[in-house]
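We now fix the convention by which a protein and its fold are recorded. The integers have meaning only within a learned vocabulary of local backbone shapes. The record below shows the convention in full.
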Amino acid sequence: MKIQDIQAIQLLLATPKKIAIIPHRSPDGDAMGSTLGLYHFLLKNNHFPTVIAPNEFPDFLAWLPGSETVKIFEKDKENCTKILEESDLIFTLDFNALHRVGEMEHVLVKMKAPFIMIDHHQKPDDYSTYTYSDTSFGSTCEMLYNFISLLDKKEDIDATIGTCIYTGILTDSGSFRYTGTTGNTHRIIAELIDLGVENTKIPTLLFDNSSYSRLQLLGRALQNLKVLASHKTSYSTLTQEELNTFNYVKGDTEGIVNYGLSIKDIIFTAIFIENKDEKIIKISFRSQAGFDVNQFARDHFNGGGHINAAGGKSDLSMEETIQKFENLVSKLTI
């Protein structure tokens, strides 16, 4: 980040302000961890922050400190719009294009307040006044730790802020398995543990809190898993009917896509999840080695993300989407 931008942000934050903090739609651990971590940091520095999520976040993140204060735009559009319109400053975290916030985009494009983006995805849009964008980071939470340090406020990071940051790093690094995990990532984690972050408790809260219905849904997704061995690819599907059968709630499909990469010799995997309300098939892509699922998602499924983790969508039926995917895979060299 440019020195002059850091100095400008320091000046902005020198006096108390009303500040809106926004994650992307369907926020994950990194989105909620970074926004709530920033929330506690700004609160500590005498500001008046509000986290406004475009829609509900998963129940398995509801234990995060401050999660009870989060406003949900879809549930209270009038009040959330008022908060946004009265904000002196707006932070957007873990996304870099305003369409990622759904309906809230229509409000944000009219805002006159300065925007600050903190994000690690590729090809950022130019809506923000100050942009901290770096694809070399494995998570936005790791960037938030650096951002606070760049503001000469590292001493403000306590166990509460650290818990939020740790959560985002843990989830977006695939429990420290993805290629974005560096020595510096582990050094930050060590510092957070020294601050009192409960590193043995957090994984249990995140990953070992499944409902019986979620485990049944996982079982169905694994039953539906297909392997295209000659192309080192696997994929699974979940229809709306299957989601309904197993009492799907938000967050239940989180992480299921990763099982496809646990198969020997598989480099590329995907999961296709039907959403009849939105009339789309939501897609998650994962890869290993050098196969770029970000580019694959951008080129073929109106999506994007990272080299080894990306998302997309299809307006076709499930059957047509799978046929399209298999045809594309048959032409790949993996």
User: Anything to note?
Assistant: The chain has two domains: 3-206, 215-330. The mean pLDDT is 95. The CA atoms of residues 223 and 236 lie 8 Å apart.
